[in-house]
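[job 4471] stage=fold_predict status=RUNNING
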Amino acid sequence: MRKKVRNFIEENHMVEKNDCILAAVSGGADSLCLLSVLHELREELGITLCVIHVEHGIRGEESLQDAAFVEEVCRKYQIPCKVCHCQALAYAKDKRQSVEEAARKLRYGLFGEAAQEFGANKIAVAHNQNDSAETMLFHLARGTGLKGLCGILPVRGQIIRPLLCASRQEIEEYLDGEGREFCVDKTNEELQYTRNKIRHRILPLLEEVNANAISHMNQTAGFVTEAVGLIQELRMRASEKYVRVCEDGMHISQGLLLEPVMIQKETLLGSLAEAAKNSKDISSVHVQQLLE
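[job 4471] inference complete, writing structure tokens
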């Protein structure tokens, strides 16, 4: 595992010497593996480590026990640790969001604050290949373009994901071999959450079709990511050629219609997002209306 993760970190240029890495540790198998491997690699990579644990206020005493467990592990490793408490249920209700979405937003906001406090320039989270496959299926079911089929990216800004080279099974086998304990979040078994349905019902069926389904899906996500990169490069060239920003708005030449349809749509999508200063609520319907 150690060698595999190190190679993946180097392939994706995740860290540089003297980086300070904030590891997000929930106490579960994935995050304990992340912390353990980064701790083993810290001298080889020339990095320093610090930890954040977010307690979402959802599971009561059990959640507080997880926080204490993470603090104890960090004391053992002699790694600085910050425990943050929040109320995801109340936040979700106030913002009219799902608990999953609310917890994620709160969590990443706290990650950013802790990174500033510790002086960390990278934030390591413990997503693995299973998580990426789940994300692909989630996006595919809801409707998505090519970007939604990229799965989870290894690097996004200051966020790095060193465990995206490993499956959940590999992670648990590693922890078992090292004799390391980890926490179990019972909410991960509850099927009212969409991701849990994908995790416990759909992915196992796909693995019955092909035992390497998760690995193959991640490989495909890599191919799609490369394709998206090429499309974005062509979109930028088309924007430079056909799009002009003026005082009275944005002018788009009809010459754009000579480009391949995908480049037309991507260029219009980029122009709409630039004009709106936000791409969140822009869909294929708006692009098609503009194209027409």
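[job 4471] summary: The first strand starts at residue 20 and ends at 24.
[job 4471] exit 0
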